């Protein structure tokens, strides 16, 4: 089956999460991803456990569907190999601190002379411009600068980091959509371009409700637990044996919830709860009253009743429960594949289900330098050339 991005060639000089996740998505859609790792240790993620026969599971999760090379880019020969790769490429992705690529002589201005049609994507903590651009930035710093940490957590608690590296993934997805946009433009014009993506900008762009509240009324988003700042009931509630989520966020759902689920029709006329806006203003009172009733029965009882009356609701899972849920399994969000060292492995599936060009898992994450010889031969290097590069320790 031919995939959507069959024929696109991507040189991936990124490491850890944001860049590798971006190129993984492109690879899932059929692009030929050549991951170039630093000599001799490779991607930093290779040092992160858990390990399967000394191979990092973290590394394998975001580097599927790629071929792997390991080059010494500080050597003249290593840089020349990269430039030879760039001559044949459509896209180049890197996520080093601004300035590093310039020092290595592989910045956009240099590489576009080699390949004018090149789409060059840089992912960094703060972007290539601005007062903070030269700072190193990890996901947690981006969460702090974007305001996300300050609005996450319990009302009277400390700022809390989101449970996943959300700015890394936001940057990866921003990079994917930007690369595809630039690729479409290149198909029309023949022109490549430079893409500057930052972790901070990417996560900040997702705060649309919070921006609307601030620009429209001057309201600053604050920690509110699981509650919504503008709708109620729309949060997690405690039951007899755990917690569930309830989202009766419009008037019709609210009235159904009061009458058929809670058996509290008087709440509909209560001045504190008469409109969605009133309920949001008195969300603490509402939480107390709802939980007094919910604590009388277990979560299963309430979820069944809520579903019966069409009230959006759901469990609050631990992560192992998520991966083993029948719906998650039916949606093929957990896949199995064979790894040359790890054997039968599990990984996450493809979130978008395309009818004609679905994502495919065609390659396990590469061993370090696994495809050096294969790729070099495609570039025209002879076996003698490759042996000499090995002797000079330019490649692993």
UniProtKB/TrEMBL annotation:
Keyword tags: Transferase
GO molecular function: transferase activity
Domain of life per record: Bacteria
Record has Transferase as a keyword: yes
Protein name, per record: CoA transferase
Originating species: Virgibacillus tibetensis
Signal peptide: none
EC number of this enzyme: 2.8.3.-
Keyword rRNA-binding: no
Any single Pfam family the record assigns to this protein: CoA_transf_3
């Amino acid at each position: 089956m031919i995939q959507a991005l069959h024929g696109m060639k991507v040189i991936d000089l990124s490491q850890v999460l944001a860049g590798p996740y971006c190129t993984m998505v492109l690879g899932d859609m059929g692009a030929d991803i050549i991951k170039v790792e630093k000599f001799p240790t490779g991607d930093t993620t290779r040092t992160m456990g858990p390990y399967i026969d000394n191979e990092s599971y973290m590394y394998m999760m975001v580097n599927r569907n790629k071929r792997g090379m390991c080059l010494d880019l500080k050597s003249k020969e290593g840089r020349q190999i990269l430039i030879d790769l760039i001559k044949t490429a459509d896209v180049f992705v890197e996520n080093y601190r601004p300035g590093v690529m310039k020092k290595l002589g592989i910045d956009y201005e240099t590489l576009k002379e080699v390949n004018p049609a090149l789409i060059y994507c840089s992912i960094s903590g703060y972007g290539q411009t601005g007062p903070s651009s030269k700072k190193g930035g990890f996901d947690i710093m981006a969460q702090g600068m974007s305001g996300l940490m300050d609005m996450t957590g319990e009302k009277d608690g400390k700022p809390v980091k989101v449970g996943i590296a959300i700015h890394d993934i936001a940057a990866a997805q921003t990079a994917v959509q930007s690369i595809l946009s630039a690729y479409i433009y290149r198909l029309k014009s023949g022109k490549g371009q430079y893409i500057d993506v930052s972790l901070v900008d990417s996560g900040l762009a997702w705060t649309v409700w919070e921006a609307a509240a601030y620009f429209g009324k001057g309201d600053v988003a604050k920690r509110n637990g699981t509650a919504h700042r503008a709708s109620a009931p729309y949060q997690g509630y405690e039951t007899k044996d755990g917690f569930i989520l309830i989202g009766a966020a419009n008037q019709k759902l609210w009235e159904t919830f009061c009458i058929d689920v809670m058996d509290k029709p008087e709440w509909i006329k209560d001045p504190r709860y008469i409109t969605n806006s009133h309920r949001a203003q008195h969300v603490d009172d509402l939480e107390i009253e709802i939980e007094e009733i919910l604590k009388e029965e277990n979560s299963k009882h309430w979820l069944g009743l809520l579903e019966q009356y069409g009230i959006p609701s759901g469990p609050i899972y631990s992560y192992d429960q998520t991966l083993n849920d029948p719906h998650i399994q039916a949606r093929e969000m957990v896949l199995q594949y064979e790894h040359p060292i790890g054997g039968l492995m599990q990984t996450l599936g493809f979130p978008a289900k395309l009818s004609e060009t679905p994502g495919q898992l065609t390659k396990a994450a590469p061993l370090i330098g696994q495809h050096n010889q294969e790729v070099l031969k495609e570039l025209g290097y002879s076996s003698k050339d490759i042996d000499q590069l090995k002797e000079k320790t330019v490649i692993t």
